[in-house]
Design a protein that fits this description.
The protein is an all-alpha fold. It has 13 helices and 2 strands, in the order αααααβααααααβαα. About 4% of the residues have low confidence.
Length: 317
């Protein structure tokens, strides 16, 4: 029965992700907003809802280590696994946007702020407020970027859609489909996590691995499905924007709201490798964008980092 639930929930994830991509494209075309901005805001926050729900629940139950570990693991999976897969499967990646000049700051700064906050062994409510303010600054940055921004890819896509007779835009149609897409992604991810955990338990996998690996991996599934779907549709800017925006949302909104709900203790010594790995993969992302290494070797390098993270985690069983 759990296997059936797993398959159905994965199907919901895929269907919901496809809706998100299609309707987000329509919004981008209608208001001349770049695919990156749509991916980094609307889709990124939507696909971070599972992390938020899981971390808030863990915080309320007094499992602060689990809440923070979920964010750390999700950030690692988002960069190492999702971008790694995208770089490998994408036919050609030549984004118009200079991610290094415009976005590397927003990929790295929240991680550095997070590290400074956990040095005293606690993420307080005040820390939570600061994290939410940082997300607010990021949204303001993206809104300023979106003003009057039109790229050749959007114009070409618009022409294609007009030729196919699909250019008609109506909020009455787009909003319900967008909402349905979000619901399918979030609910699908939730049932995928639960069914996968039940399957893992039936095979005797430890609760620690289920919590740290399965929870982080499970809550990263929306980003994975959305990212891969966008890459296959040659919407790579949207995919990369989704990853940067999702990690930003994880580190600021998810942890911020969880900390406001209940201050969280965190033992840095326990997760020193995981924190270090999160910093390393973020620096790898900055290096890749600085040198525009959007290729298969870069994807393989990220997957190697993921393998090291997985090996270290499993060895602690």
């Amino acid at each position: 029965m759990e296997f059936i639930i797993f398959i159905v929930s994965m199907a919901a994830l895929i269907w919901g992700a496809d809706m998100l991509i299609e309707e987000s494209e329509r919004i981008a075309l209608r208001f001349h907003i770049s695919e990156f901005v749509i991916g980094a805001t609307l889709i990124a926050i939507g696909t971070s809802l599972p992390e938020m729900a899981a971390s808030i629940s863990a915080s309320l139950e007094g499992k602060s280590q689990m809440a923070v570990a979920n964010v750390i693991g999700s950030n690692i999976f988002n960069i190492a696994m999702i971008l790694g897969v995208i770089f490998i499967i994408a036919k050609s990646i030549n984004p118009d946007r200079d991610f290094f000049a415009k976005d590397s700051y927003w990929a790295l700064v929240p991680i550095m702020v997070f590290v400074l906050m956990i040095l005293d062994g606690e993420i307080s409510r005040f820390d939570g407020i600061l994290l939410l303010l940082l997300m607010g600054a990021y949204i303001l940055f993206l809104l300023s970027e979106a003003t009057g921004l039109i790229n050749d890819q959007l114009e070409e896509l618009s022409n294609e859609i007009e030729e196919e007779g699909k250019a008609t835009f109506a909020w009455s149609k787009t909003l319900p489909l967008l909402l349905l897409g979000f619901i399918l992604v979030v609910v699908g991810a939730n049932f995928t996590i639960e069914s996968a955990s039940s399957i893992a338990t039936s095979f005797g996998v430890s609760e620690w691995v289920i919590g740290i690996i399965m929870l982080s991996l499970g809550t990263s599934l929306p980003e994975l499905i959305v990212g891969v779907t966008a890459a296959l549709k040659n919407r790579v800017e949207m995919a990369i924007g989704n990853i940067i925006g999702s990690n930003m949302a994880n580190t600021t909104i998810v942890l911020g709201v969880a900390a406001l709900t209940r201050p969280m203790d965190f033992e840095l010594e326990t997760y020193i490798f995981d924190v270090s790995m999160m910093i390393v993969v973020t620096l790898m992302l900055v290096f890749i964008t600085a040198n525009r290494l959007y290729n298969k070797p870069a994807g393989i390098s990220l997957l190697i980092a993921l393998a090291l993270f997985m090996e270290n985690t499993i060895s602690k069983m």
